[in-house]
């Protein structure tokens, strides 16, 4: 883990980029959040059907609005 943070700091230094310890500490948090955003979220057929039924009960005609 130390090596990862050290490499990031060395890369920033070699690029002449100004950085702050807080930015450095949260560098990998940002990468993790972006990875999670890119993950495909899959719903089971049962959950999709339940959502469609619930929307129909509420009088919502748009089938893709909440899916």
Characterization of the model:
There is one protein chain. With 67 residues, this protein is mainly α. The protein has one domain. It has four helices and no strands. The protein has helices at residues 2-15, 21-25, 27-38, 45-57. The protein is rod-shaped, with a radius of gyration of 22 Å. The model has no long low-confidence stretch (mean pLDDT 79).
Keywords:
67 residues; 66% helix; rod-shaped
Quick structural summary:
The chain is mainly α and 67 residues long.
Measured as a percent range, the helix fraction is 55-70%
Q: What percent strand?
A: under 5%
Q: What is the count of DSSP helices, taking H or I runs of 4+ residues?
A: 4
Largest sheet: none
SSE pattern: HHHH
Topology overview:
Blueprint: H1 2-15, H2 21-25, H3 27-38, H4 45-57
């Amino acid at each position: 883990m130390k090596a990862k943070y050290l490499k990031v700091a060395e890369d920033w230094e070699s690029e002449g980029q100004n950085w702050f310890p807080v930015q450095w500490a949260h560098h990998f948090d940002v990468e993790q959040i972006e990875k999670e955003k890119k993950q495909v979220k899959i719903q089971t057929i049962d959950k999709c059907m339940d959502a469609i039924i619930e929307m129909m009960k509420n009088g919502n005609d748009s089938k893709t609005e909440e899916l």
